[in-house]
Design goal:
The protein has 283 residues and is α+β, with helices and mostly antiparallel strands. It has 2 domains: 204 residues, no CATH class; 59 residues. Helices cover 51% and strands 11% of the residues. The protein has 11 helices and 7 strands. Strands 5-6-4-7 form a 4-stranded antiparallel β-sheet. It has a 3-stranded antiparallel β-sheet with strand order 1-3-2. Helix 9 packs antiparallel against helix 10. The longest helix has 22 residues. It is globular, with a radius of gyration of 21 Å.
Length: 283
């Protein structure tokens, strides 16, 4: 990478306001991105080492996550529970959306339930957002009908579902429903930051933000997108990171006799950055 590319990547990282990763978020992000979502404790401890998180801190986080119902522990390995498996499915769908040909029709959901508790309202809003529908006005949700996914019972209990075609320009309607320029700008900054990250730990932190951003992608038909839409490139770049992380995890679960002791010098030919750390030790 030339110095100008490095400067661009550093500038991109500076605009992202990335969240620091706690021991819990490191464990959760690792398992959500791994298939199957189960890893031995030594692998999770090694991932924590990338961030200078102490082994004891990782183990405490694992115990708390088991107690909270986020993880289950069996035979020295930790895996996601059913609730978080559903979250993994949503994240997988965000990286590889199931598309169908678009014929110009829109899916429309109108809230018709007469009495709804605040909890029911909040649950519907969260579900509709996850389904990538946008709210035109309170109780009216819609999007182009180009996605293949079921509507959960919660939606059918509160809404009536229709398909229809707007009389106005669909591109103008899309622009009113979603901040496409804002999403695209942030996606480009994330891509530049991933490209310019110095080591796996830094890419891991950026990739966690990429996952959140992909969940907010409206995944619109191509003809309704602005020119040079960065969604596909961001997904491709994240896919490359997933491959890098998978390779690191394979090394982390290798027999102890074949592993390099913690703190040992990097062997000749070992990929740079696999053992990079970021931040300070968090006890």
């Amino acid at each position: 990478m030339n110095e100008y590319a490095s400067e661009d990547a550093a500038a991109a990282r500076g605009t992202l306001a990335l969240r620091p990763l706690t021991a819990r978020s490191i464990v959760l992000s690792t398992l959500l991105g791994h298939h199957p979502p189960r890893l031995p404790v030594r692998a999770l401890v090694r991932v924590g080492e990338l961030f200078d998180v102490a082994e004891g801190t990782v183990r405490v986080a694992l115990s708390r996550m088991v107690a909270a119902g986020d993880l289950e522990q069996r035979d020295g390995a930790y895996g996601l529970t059913a609730r978080l498996l559903a979250r993994q499915t949503r994240q997988d769908d965000s990286r590889s959306p199931r598309l169908r040909g678009w014929d110009g029709r829109w899916e429309i959901a109108l809230v018709t339930a007469e009495r709804r508790s605040p909890a029911e309202r909040a649950a519907l809003r969260q579900t509709m957002t996850g389904l990538r529908l946008a709210e035109l006005r309170e109780g009216s949700w819609l999007r182009p009908a180009n996605l293949e996914r079921p509507h959960p019972p919660l939606v059918r209990a509160q809404c009536s579902l229709f398909t229809g075609t707007p009389e106005e320009d669909p591109a103008e309607l899309v622009a009113a429903l979603w901040d496409l320029d804002g999403w695209a700008s942030h996606a480009r900054a994330l891509t530049a930051a991933l490209d310019g990250a110095a080591d796996l730990a830094e890419r891991f932190t950026i990739a966690a933000a990429v996952v959140r951003h992909l969940l907010a992608d409206p995944v619109l038909p191509e003809r309704l997108l602005p020119p040079d839409w960065p969604g596909a490139r961001l997904r491709d770049r994240y896919g490359a990171f997933e491959g890098e992380l998978a390779e690191a995890l394979r090394r982390f679960v290798a027999p102890v006799g074949g592993a390099r002791p913690a703190g040992a010098a990097r062997a000749p030919g070992e990929p740079y950055g696999m053992r990079g750390t970021v931040g300070r030790r968090r006890e």
